[in-house]
Fold:
Amino acid sequence: MSLSSEGLTLLLLITVVMLCMKQLFSYYKGNKYHLPPGPTPLPIIGNLHLVGTKRQDLVFMKLAEKYGPIFTFYLGSSPAVVLVGYDVMKEALLNSSYDFGNRAPVPLIDNFQHGQGVFFSNGEIWKTTRRFALSILRDLGMGKSPIEGKIIEELHYLNELIRSYNGKPFNQKVFGNAPPNITFGLLFGKRFDYDHPTFRKIVKNVDDIVILAGTPEAQFYNVFPILGYILNTPHVVVKKVEEIQEIMKKLFVELRESLNENCWRTYTEAFMLKDQMETNTAENGKIFQEKNLLASMFDIILGGTETTAATIQWGILFLMKYPHIQKKAQEEIESVIGLERPPTWDDQKCLPYCLAMVHEIQRLGNILQFIPHATAADAHFRGYFIPKGTLVIPLLTGVLYDKTQWATPREFNPDHFLDSDGKFLKKDAFYPFSKGRRACAGESLARMEVFIFIIGLLQKFTFTPPPGVDRSDLDMDAEVCFTLRPKYYNVCAIPRT
Structure:
Protein backbone atom coordinates (compact mmCIF):
# COMPACT_ATOMS: atom_id res chain seq x y z
CA MET A 1 0.00 0.00 0.00
CA SER A 2 1.45 3.40 -0.99
CA LEU A 3 0.82 6.64 0.87
CA SER A 4 -0.47 9.81 -0.76
CA SER A 5 1.64 12.94 -0.45
CA GLU A 6 -0.77 14.20 2.22
CA GLY A 7 -0.51 10.91 4.10
CA LEU A 8 3.27 10.96 3.94
CA THR A 9 3.36 14.55 5.23
CA LEU A 10 1.06 13.60 8.11
CA LEU A 11 3.24 10.57 8.92
CA LEU A 12 6.37 12.72 8.99
CA LEU A 13 4.67 15.31 11.19
CA ILE A 14 3.51 12.67 13.65
CA THR A 15 7.01 11.16 13.67
CA VAL A 16 8.63 14.52 14.42
CA VAL A 17 6.20 15.20 17.27
CA MET A 18 6.78 11.73 18.74
CA LEU A 19 10.56 12.15 18.52
CA CYS A 20 10.38 15.52 20.26
CA MET A 21 8.23 14.06 23.03
CA LYS A 22 10.54 11.07 23.38
CA GLN A 23 13.56 13.35 23.63
CA LEU A 24 11.97 15.55 26.27
CA PHE A 25 11.10 12.43 28.25
CA SER A 26 14.63 11.02 27.85
CA TYR A 27 16.23 14.30 28.89
CA TYR A 28 13.93 14.57 31.91
CA LYS A 29 14.62 10.96 32.83
CA GLY A 30 18.39 11.49 32.42
CA ASN A 31 18.30 14.39 34.86
CA LYS A 32 16.09 12.41 37.23
CA TYR A 33 18.46 9.41 37.20
CA HIS A 34 21.54 11.63 37.49
CA LEU A 35 23.32 10.65 34.29
CA PRO A 36 26.78 12.16 33.75
CA PRO A 37 26.83 15.77 32.50
CA GLY A 38 27.22 16.54 28.83
CA PRO A 39 26.28 18.99 26.08
CA THR A 40 22.65 20.13 26.00
CA PRO A 41 20.73 18.25 23.27
CA LEU A 42 18.68 19.89 20.54
CA PRO A 43 15.19 18.69 19.59
CA ILE A 44 15.10 15.50 17.49
CA ILE A 45 18.82 15.38 16.64
CA GLY A 46 20.12 15.50 20.22
CA ASN A 47 23.85 16.26 20.05
CA LEU A 48 24.40 14.98 16.52
CA HIS A 49 25.15 18.53 15.35
CA LEU A 50 28.41 18.34 17.32
CA VAL A 51 29.81 15.40 15.33
CA GLY A 52 30.18 14.61 11.68
CA THR A 53 29.92 11.23 10.01
CA LYS A 54 33.68 10.65 10.04
CA ARG A 55 35.89 10.75 13.13
CA GLN A 56 33.36 10.90 15.96
CA ASP A 57 36.03 9.45 18.24
CA LEU A 58 38.16 12.58 17.94
CA VAL A 59 35.12 14.75 18.68
CA PHE A 60 34.37 12.67 21.79
CA MET A 61 37.95 13.10 22.96
CA LYS A 62 37.60 16.86 22.56
CA LEU A 63 34.31 16.86 24.49
CA ALA A 64 35.98 14.86 27.28
CA GLU A 65 38.35 17.78 27.82
CA LYS A 66 35.32 19.88 28.77
CA TYR A 67 32.97 17.37 30.42
CA GLY A 68 35.41 14.84 31.83
CA PRO A 69 36.17 11.18 31.03
CA ILE A 70 32.51 10.14 31.40
CA PHE A 71 29.75 12.23 29.85
CA THR A 72 26.29 11.91 28.29
CA PHE A 73 25.84 12.45 24.57
CA TYR A 74 22.40 12.30 22.94
CA LEU A 75 22.08 10.32 19.73
CA GLY A 76 18.73 11.68 18.66
CA SER A 77 16.47 11.18 21.65
CA SER A 78 18.57 8.40 23.19
CA PRO A 79 21.24 9.21 25.79
CA ALA A 80 24.60 7.50 25.39
CA VAL A 81 27.24 7.42 28.12
CA VAL A 82 30.69 7.98 26.58
CA LEU A 83 33.82 6.65 28.29
CA VAL A 84 37.12 8.30 27.35
CA GLY A 85 40.58 7.42 28.68
CA TYR A 86 42.41 4.48 30.17
CA ASP A 87 41.33 4.86 33.79
CA VAL A 88 37.58 5.03 33.16
CA MET A 89 37.70 2.29 30.49
CA LYS A 90 39.57 -0.07 32.80
CA GLU A 91 37.11 0.61 35.61
CA ALA A 92 34.09 0.02 33.37
CA LEU A 93 35.21 -2.89 31.16
CA LEU A 94 37.28 -4.81 33.71
CA ASN A 95 36.19 -3.84 37.22
CA SER A 96 32.50 -3.45 36.28
CA SER A 97 32.47 -5.82 33.33
CA TYR A 98 29.02 -7.27 33.98
CA ASP A 99 27.29 -3.89 34.33
CA PHE A 100 28.69 -2.71 30.99
CA GLY A 101 28.77 -6.11 29.30
CA ASN A 102 25.76 -6.09 26.98
CA ARG A 103 25.87 -5.26 23.29
CA ALA A 104 23.76 -2.27 22.30
CA PRO A 105 21.32 -2.56 19.38
CA VAL A 106 22.79 -1.60 16.01
CA PRO A 107 19.79 -1.49 13.62
CA LEU A 108 21.86 -1.92 10.45
CA ILE A 109 23.40 -5.12 11.82
CA ASP A 110 20.29 -6.33 13.63
CA ASN A 111 18.51 -6.37 10.25
CA PHE A 112 20.47 -9.48 9.26
CA GLN A 113 21.91 -10.90 12.49
CA HIS A 114 18.56 -10.86 14.32
CA GLY A 115 20.14 -11.13 17.75
CA GLN A 116 22.17 -14.23 16.80
CA GLY A 117 25.90 -14.90 16.52
CA VAL A 118 28.98 -14.15 18.60
CA PHE A 119 29.45 -10.38 18.51
CA PHE A 120 26.06 -8.68 18.40
CA SER A 121 23.90 -10.98 20.53
CA ASN A 122 23.04 -10.88 24.22
CA GLY A 123 21.84 -13.12 27.02
CA GLU A 124 21.96 -16.91 26.82
CA ILE A 125 22.46 -16.93 23.05
CA TRP A 126 25.59 -14.79 23.36
CA LYS A 127 27.04 -16.66 26.35
CA THR A 128 26.49 -20.12 24.86
CA THR A 129 27.57 -19.23 21.31
CA ARG A 130 30.68 -17.34 22.42
CA ARG A 131 31.70 -20.12 24.82
CA PHE A 132 31.22 -22.70 22.07
CA ALA A 133 33.13 -20.61 19.50
CA LEU A 134 36.10 -20.07 21.80
CA SER A 135 36.24 -23.76 22.68
CA ILE A 136 36.04 -24.99 19.09
CA LEU A 137 38.46 -22.42 17.69
CA ARG A 138 40.99 -23.33 20.38
CA ASP A 139 40.58 -27.02 19.52
CA LEU A 140 41.21 -26.11 15.88
CA GLY A 141 44.50 -24.52 16.89
CA MET A 142 43.67 -20.83 17.25
CA GLY A 143 46.80 -19.24 18.69
CA LYS A 144 48.71 -22.54 18.50
CA SER A 145 51.04 -24.34 16.10
CA PRO A 146 48.39 -25.98 13.85
CA ILE A 147 47.01 -22.63 12.74
CA GLU A 148 50.52 -21.16 12.67
CA GLY A 149 51.39 -23.56 9.87
CA LYS A 150 48.39 -22.35 7.86
CA ILE A 151 49.42 -18.72 8.34
CA ILE A 152 52.99 -19.46 7.19
CA GLU A 153 51.61 -21.31 4.16
CA GLU A 154 49.36 -18.35 3.31
CA LEU A 155 52.30 -15.98 3.75
CA HIS A 156 54.06 -17.88 0.97
CA TYR A 157 51.11 -17.36 -1.42
CA LEU A 158 50.92 -13.67 -0.53
CA ASN A 159 54.64 -13.19 -1.07
CA GLU A 160 54.40 -14.89 -4.46
CA LEU A 161 51.55 -12.60 -5.48
CA ILE A 162 53.50 -9.50 -4.45
CA ARG A 163 56.63 -10.77 -6.19
CA SER A 164 54.63 -11.08 -9.42
CA TYR A 165 54.41 -7.27 -9.63
CA ASN A 166 58.20 -7.14 -10.19
CA GLY A 167 58.67 -4.04 -8.07
CA LYS A 168 55.94 -2.09 -9.88
CA PRO A 169 53.16 -0.28 -7.98
CA PHE A 170 50.14 -2.20 -6.75
CA ASN A 171 47.15 -1.32 -4.59
CA GLN A 172 46.96 -1.89 -0.84
CA LYS A 173 44.04 -4.30 -1.37
CA VAL A 174 46.57 -6.99 -2.28
CA PHE A 175 47.44 -7.32 1.42
CA GLY A 176 43.82 -8.18 2.14
CA ASN A 177 44.02 -11.47 0.23
CA ALA A 178 45.76 -13.50 2.92
CA PRO A 179 43.64 -13.14 6.11
CA PRO A 180 40.35 -14.45 4.62
CA ASN A 181 41.90 -17.82 3.80
CA ILE A 182 42.87 -18.38 7.43
CA THR A 183 39.24 -17.79 8.40
CA PHE A 184 37.91 -19.95 5.57
CA GLY A 185 40.17 -22.77 6.71
CA LEU A 186 38.65 -22.65 10.20
CA LEU A 187 35.10 -22.49 8.86
CA PHE A 188 35.22 -24.69 5.75
CA GLY A 189 38.50 -26.62 5.98
CA LYS A 190 39.82 -25.26 2.67
CA ARG A 191 41.74 -22.39 1.16
CA PHE A 192 40.84 -20.69 -2.10
CA ASP A 193 43.06 -19.34 -4.84
CA TYR A 194 42.92 -15.56 -4.78
CA ASP A 195 41.17 -15.46 -8.16
CA HIS A 196 38.61 -18.17 -7.26
CA PRO A 197 35.04 -16.87 -7.88
CA THR A 198 33.83 -17.92 -4.40
CA PHE A 199 36.78 -16.21 -2.73
CA ARG A 200 36.37 -13.04 -4.74
CA LYS A 201 32.61 -12.90 -4.14
CA ILE A 202 32.87 -13.22 -0.36
CA VAL A 203 35.77 -10.77 -0.08
CA LYS A 204 34.05 -8.25 -2.37
CA ASN A 205 30.77 -8.42 -0.46
CA VAL A 206 32.48 -8.08 2.92
CA ASP A 207 34.38 -5.08 1.56
CA ASP A 208 31.16 -3.49 0.30
CA ILE A 209 29.40 -4.09 3.63
CA VAL A 210 32.26 -2.55 5.60
CA ILE A 211 32.22 0.53 3.34
CA LEU A 212 28.42 0.89 3.38
CA ALA A 213 28.29 0.56 7.18
CA GLY A 214 30.38 3.71 7.50
CA THR A 215 28.31 5.88 5.16
CA PRO A 216 26.21 8.79 6.49
CA GLU A 217 23.06 6.93 5.42
CA ALA A 218 23.95 3.93 7.58
CA GLN A 219 24.89 6.09 10.56
CA PHE A 220 21.66 8.11 10.39
CA TYR A 221 19.69 4.89 10.05
CA ASN A 222 21.28 3.49 13.23
CA VAL A 223 20.06 6.56 15.12
CA PHE A 224 16.70 6.89 13.34
CA PRO A 225 15.63 3.42 12.12
CA ILE A 226 12.40 4.88 10.74
CA LEU A 227 14.54 6.28 7.90
CA GLY A 228 14.68 2.72 6.58
CA TYR A 229 11.51 3.54 4.64
CA ILE A 230 13.38 6.06 2.49
CA LEU A 231 17.05 5.01 2.67
CA ASN A 232 18.40 2.35 0.33
CA THR A 233 21.66 1.52 2.12
CA PRO A 234 20.16 -0.80 4.80
CA HIS A 235 18.49 -2.89 2.11
CA VAL A 236 21.67 -3.12 0.02
CA VAL A 237 23.62 -4.31 3.08
CA VAL A 238 21.06 -7.03 3.81
CA LYS A 239 21.16 -8.16 0.17
CA LYS A 240 24.95 -8.48 0.24
CA VAL A 241 24.84 -10.43 3.50
CA GLU A 242 22.24 -12.76 2.00
CA GLU A 243 24.55 -13.37 -0.98
CA ILE A 244 27.31 -14.42 1.42
CA GLN A 245 24.86 -16.65 3.27
CA GLU A 246 23.89 -18.39 0.03
CA ILE A 247 27.54 -19.24 -0.59
CA MET A 248 27.87 -20.52 2.97
CA LYS A 249 24.78 -22.72 2.57
CA LYS A 250 26.29 -24.34 -0.52
CA LEU A 251 29.45 -25.06 1.44
CA PHE A 252 27.28 -26.50 4.23
CA VAL A 253 26.02 -29.14 1.80
CA GLU A 254 29.57 -30.25 1.01
CA LEU A 255 30.43 -30.51 4.69
CA ARG A 256 27.23 -32.38 5.60
CA GLU A 257 27.97 -35.04 2.99
CA SER A 258 31.19 -35.97 4.79
CA LEU A 259 30.05 -35.19 8.34
CA ASN A 260 31.37 -37.69 10.89
CA GLU A 261 30.02 -37.45 14.42
CA ASN A 262 33.26 -38.90 15.77
CA CYS A 263 35.59 -36.53 13.95
CA TRP A 264 34.89 -32.92 13.02
CA ARG A 265 37.50 -30.79 11.28
CA THR A 266 35.93 -27.31 11.10
CA TYR A 267 33.89 -24.87 13.17
CA THR A 268 30.94 -25.48 10.85
CA GLU A 269 31.01 -29.25 11.31
CA ALA A 270 31.28 -28.89 15.09
CA PHE A 271 28.27 -26.55 15.07
CA MET A 272 26.24 -28.95 12.90
CA LEU A 273 26.95 -31.83 15.27
CA LYS A 274 25.99 -29.66 18.23
CA ASP A 275 22.76 -28.83 16.41
CA GLN A 276 21.96 -32.53 16.08
CA MET A 277 22.66 -33.21 19.76
CA GLU A 278 21.00 -30.17 21.31
CA THR A 279 17.85 -30.84 23.27
CA ASN A 280 17.81 -27.93 25.71
CA THR A 281 16.17 -24.65 24.72
CA ALA A 282 16.94 -21.11 25.77
CA GLU A 283 14.52 -18.29 26.37
CA ASN A 284 14.47 -17.59 22.63
CA GLY A 285 14.34 -21.22 21.57
CA LYS A 286 17.00 -23.55 20.24
CA ILE A 287 20.47 -21.99 20.13
CA PHE A 288 22.34 -24.31 17.77
CA GLN A 289 20.34 -23.87 14.60
CA GLU A 290 21.09 -22.67 11.10
CA LYS A 291 20.27 -18.99 11.65
CA ASN A 292 22.74 -18.82 14.55
CA LEU A 293 25.34 -20.73 12.55
CA LEU A 294 25.01 -18.27 9.65
CA ALA A 295 25.19 -15.30 12.03
CA SER A 296 28.22 -16.58 13.95
CA MET A 297 30.03 -17.48 10.73
CA PHE A 298 29.42 -13.99 9.37
CA ASP A 299 30.80 -12.54 12.63
CA ILE A 300 33.92 -14.69 12.31
CA ILE A 301 34.39 -13.80 8.64
CA LEU A 302 33.97 -10.07 9.32
CA GLY A 303 36.17 -10.09 12.42
CA GLY A 304 38.77 -12.42 10.95
CA THR A 305 39.29 -10.73 7.60
CA GLU A 306 38.59 -6.99 7.62
CA THR A 307 40.35 -6.05 10.86
CA THR A 308 43.50 -8.06 10.15
CA ALA A 309 43.68 -6.87 6.56
CA ALA A 310 43.25 -3.22 7.60
CA THR A 311 45.97 -3.61 10.25
CA ILE A 312 48.44 -4.97 7.68
CA GLN A 313 47.55 -2.13 5.31
CA TRP A 314 48.23 0.42 8.06
CA GLY A 315 51.51 -1.33 8.83
CA ILE A 316 52.84 -1.05 5.29
CA LEU A 317 51.75 2.59 5.10
CA PHE A 318 53.54 3.46 8.37
CA LEU A 319 56.69 1.67 7.20
CA MET A 320 56.70 3.54 3.89
CA LYS A 321 56.30 6.78 5.83
CA TYR A 322 59.11 5.95 8.26
CA PRO A 323 61.81 4.04 6.31
CA HIS A 324 64.28 4.19 9.22
CA ILE A 325 61.87 2.11 11.31
CA GLN A 326 61.38 -0.32 8.42
CA LYS A 327 65.15 -0.67 8.03
CA LYS A 328 65.73 -1.23 11.75
CA ALA A 329 63.08 -3.96 11.81
CA GLN A 330 64.59 -5.63 8.72
CA GLU A 331 68.04 -5.60 10.30
CA GLU A 332 66.69 -7.36 13.37
CA ILE A 333 64.87 -9.92 11.22
CA GLU A 334 67.98 -10.61 9.17
CA SER A 335 70.24 -10.96 12.21
CA VAL A 336 67.86 -13.29 14.10
CA ILE A 337 66.05 -15.49 11.53
CA GLY A 338 67.76 -14.61 8.26
CA LEU A 339 66.10 -14.14 4.89
CA GLU A 340 65.07 -17.71 4.07
CA ARG A 341 63.29 -19.36 7.02
CA PRO A 342 59.79 -17.92 7.44
CA PRO A 343 59.01 -16.25 10.75
CA THR A 344 57.17 -18.16 13.47
CA TRP A 345 55.14 -17.03 16.45
CA ASP A 346 57.97 -18.03 18.81
CA ASP A 347 60.29 -15.58 17.02
CA GLN A 348 58.56 -12.71 18.80
CA LYS A 349 60.61 -13.63 21.89
CA CYS A 350 63.80 -12.88 19.96
CA LEU A 351 62.53 -9.90 17.93
CA PRO A 352 61.72 -7.24 20.54
CA TYR A 353 61.93 -4.30 18.15
CA CYS A 354 59.73 -6.02 15.56
CA LEU A 355 57.22 -7.01 18.24
CA ALA A 356 57.12 -3.42 19.50
CA MET A 357 56.68 -2.17 15.94
CA VAL A 358 53.72 -4.52 15.32
CA HIS A 359 52.07 -3.42 18.57
CA GLU A 360 52.56 0.21 17.59
CA ILE A 361 50.91 -0.48 14.22
CA GLN A 362 47.89 -1.86 16.06
CA ARG A 363 47.84 1.03 18.52
CA LEU A 364 48.14 3.93 16.10
CA GLY A 365 46.20 2.16 13.34
CA ASN A 366 43.28 2.01 15.77
CA ILE A 367 41.02 -0.09 13.54
CA LEU A 368 37.82 0.46 15.56
CA GLN A 369 36.68 3.76 17.05
CA PHE A 370 34.26 1.89 19.31
CA ILE A 371 31.68 -0.89 19.34
CA PRO A 372 28.61 0.18 21.34
CA HIS A 373 27.83 -1.52 24.65
CA ALA A 374 24.75 -1.30 26.84
CA THR A 375 24.28 -1.65 30.58
CA ALA A 376 23.09 -5.14 31.51
CA ALA A 377 21.56 -3.85 34.76
CA ASP A 378 21.09 -0.59 36.62
CA ALA A 379 24.62 0.62 37.30
CA HIS A 380 26.06 2.97 39.91
CA PHE A 381 29.31 4.21 38.44
CA ARG A 382 31.54 7.06 39.62
CA GLY A 383 28.67 8.70 41.49
CA TYR A 384 26.22 8.48 38.58
CA PHE A 385 23.20 6.25 38.07
CA ILE A 386 23.04 4.61 34.63
CA PRO A 387 19.77 2.73 34.03
CA LYS A 388 19.65 -0.76 32.54
CA GLY A 389 19.73 -0.72 28.74
CA THR A 390 21.55 2.61 28.43
CA LEU A 391 23.80 2.86 25.39
CA VAL A 392 27.47 3.01 26.37
CA ILE A 393 30.30 4.10 24.06
CA PRO A 394 33.67 2.79 25.33
CA LEU A 395 36.03 4.81 23.17
CA LEU A 396 39.00 2.65 22.16
CA THR A 397 40.67 5.68 20.61
CA GLY A 398 40.54 7.37 24.00
CA VAL A 399 42.78 4.64 25.44
CA LEU A 400 45.08 4.07 22.47
CA TYR A 401 45.68 7.84 22.14
CA ASP A 402 45.60 8.64 25.87
CA LYS A 403 48.36 11.19 26.48
CA THR A 404 48.74 9.99 30.08
CA GLN A 405 49.70 6.52 28.81
CA TRP A 406 51.78 7.21 25.69
CA ALA A 407 54.75 9.57 25.29
CA THR A 408 53.77 10.58 21.74
CA PRO A 409 50.19 9.33 21.33
CA ARG A 410 49.61 10.68 17.79
CA GLU A 411 52.98 9.58 16.39
CA PHE A 412 54.25 6.22 15.12
CA ASN A 413 56.77 5.32 17.79
CA PRO A 414 57.73 1.67 18.52
CA ASP A 415 59.61 2.92 21.60
CA HIS A 416 56.22 3.02 23.32
CA PHE A 417 56.66 -0.75 23.76
CA LEU A 418 60.37 -0.87 24.62
CA ASP A 419 62.12 -0.36 27.93
CA SER A 420 65.45 1.43 28.38
CA ASP A 421 67.33 -1.79 27.56
CA GLY A 422 65.46 -2.34 24.29
CA LYS A 423 63.37 -5.20 25.68
CA PHE A 424 59.69 -5.53 24.81
CA LEU A 425 57.45 -3.78 27.32
CA LYS A 426 53.82 -4.81 27.83
CA LYS A 427 51.45 -1.89 28.27
CA ASP A 428 48.15 -2.13 30.15
CA ALA A 429 46.67 0.58 27.93
CA PHE A 430 47.01 -1.59 24.79
CA TYR A 431 43.29 -1.93 23.92
CA PRO A 432 42.97 -2.65 20.16
CA PHE A 433 40.92 -5.77 20.95
CA SER A 434 38.95 -4.09 23.76
CA LYS A 435 38.81 -5.68 27.22
CA GLY A 436 36.47 -7.52 29.52
CA ARG A 437 33.43 -9.63 28.63
CA ARG A 438 33.21 -8.22 25.12
CA ALA A 439 36.88 -8.45 24.20
CA CYS A 440 37.56 -9.82 20.71
CA ALA A 441 37.07 -13.59 20.70
CA GLY A 442 39.72 -14.02 18.00
CA GLU A 443 42.43 -11.92 19.65
CA SER A 444 45.05 -14.69 19.86
CA LEU A 445 44.57 -15.58 16.19
CA ALA A 446 44.68 -11.94 15.08
CA ARG A 447 47.89 -11.30 17.03
CA MET A 448 49.57 -14.29 15.42
CA GLU A 449 48.42 -13.39 11.91
CA VAL A 450 49.46 -9.75 12.10
CA PHE A 451 52.90 -10.60 13.49
CA ILE A 452 53.74 -13.40 11.01
CA PHE A 453 52.35 -11.59 7.96
CA ILE A 454 54.06 -8.26 8.64
CA ILE A 455 57.41 -9.77 9.65
CA GLY A 456 57.25 -12.20 6.72
CA LEU A 457 56.58 -9.36 4.29
CA LEU A 458 59.45 -7.26 5.65
CA GLN A 459 61.74 -10.26 5.43
CA LYS A 460 61.21 -10.53 1.68
CA PHE A 461 60.52 -6.95 0.56
CA THR A 462 61.32 -3.31 1.16
CA PHE A 463 58.20 -1.17 0.73
CA THR A 464 58.42 2.27 -0.87
CA PRO A 465 56.01 4.82 -2.35
CA PRO A 466 55.57 4.63 -6.13
CA PRO A 467 57.94 6.72 -8.28
CA GLY A 468 57.05 10.39 -8.10
CA VAL A 469 55.30 10.10 -4.71
CA ASP A 470 57.16 11.67 -1.80
CA ARG A 471 56.87 10.08 1.63
CA SER A 472 55.80 13.43 3.04
CA ASP A 473 52.75 13.34 0.74
CA LEU A 474 51.44 10.01 2.03
CA ASP A 475 47.96 10.53 3.48
CA MET A 476 47.86 9.20 7.03
CA ASP A 477 44.21 10.06 7.68
CA ALA A 478 41.79 7.18 8.03
CA GLU A 479 39.07 6.21 5.60
CA VAL A 480 36.03 5.86 7.86
CA CYS A 481 34.07 2.70 7.14
CA PHE A 482 32.79 0.19 9.70
CA THR A 483 36.50 0.13 10.53
CA LEU A 484 39.16 2.81 10.24
CA ARG A 485 41.15 1.87 7.15
CA PRO A 486 44.01 3.74 5.50
CA LYS A 487 42.90 5.74 2.51
CA TYR A 488 43.65 4.00 -0.78
CA TYR A 489 47.32 4.00 -1.66
CA ASN A 490 49.71 2.28 -4.05
CA VAL A 491 52.99 0.76 -2.99
CA CYS A 492 56.10 -0.75 -4.53
CA ALA A 493 57.66 -3.90 -3.05
CA ILE A 494 61.37 -4.23 -3.82
CA PRO A 495 62.52 -7.86 -3.36
CA ARG A 496 65.27 -8.40 -0.79
CA THR A 497 65.96 -12.01 -1.80
Remarks:
- The radius of gyration is 23 Å.
- The chain has a mean pLDDT of 91.
- Residues 209 and 237 are 6 Å apart (CA to CA).
